[in-house]
Amino acid sequence: MPYVELPHLNYSRSFTFAAWISVASENVFSSDLTVVGQRRWARLFVQDRQQLAFAVDSGLPPVLVDTAMLVPNRWTFVAVTVSEEGGGSRISLYREVQPPVSILRPGSFYPDPDSSSPAIIGSDEADGTHSEAFAGSLDAVRIYDRALSANEISVLYRENE
Predict the structure, then answer these.
(1) What is the mean pLDDT of residues 76-84?
(2) Rounded mean pLDDT of 17-35?
């Protein structure tokens, strides 16, 4: 799958990434597949082509992982919301209409995004190239500069199911 590179986006401390994904079945247990993200900042990805995950930096372990396994070759709606809450950051991973997997992290856990880094859909540019293309299909990818509510996430899911 080809990737899309967008100019740097000016995220606030709250944002949402959402998409419909279908992970290819071949080589199911190989690398991580970035759905959408920004190099050296935040990304929504599929870990080991099995589980939805969110990470702050490509060099660090995921901040949050959904333990449910994704079904290969099946369209699945996924989203992550990040919002400031009580001096910390609330991160919520959504898969279809299931209740989100959430965590409240104390303090600001991520730096401001690198102003020179582009947002990338369907690839991970951690090594300066786009060698890790998303293995599968992406549709209706959306990036918001605020954390959508659970009701708004539900509307996104129902719009395209």
Answers:
(1) 90
(2) 74
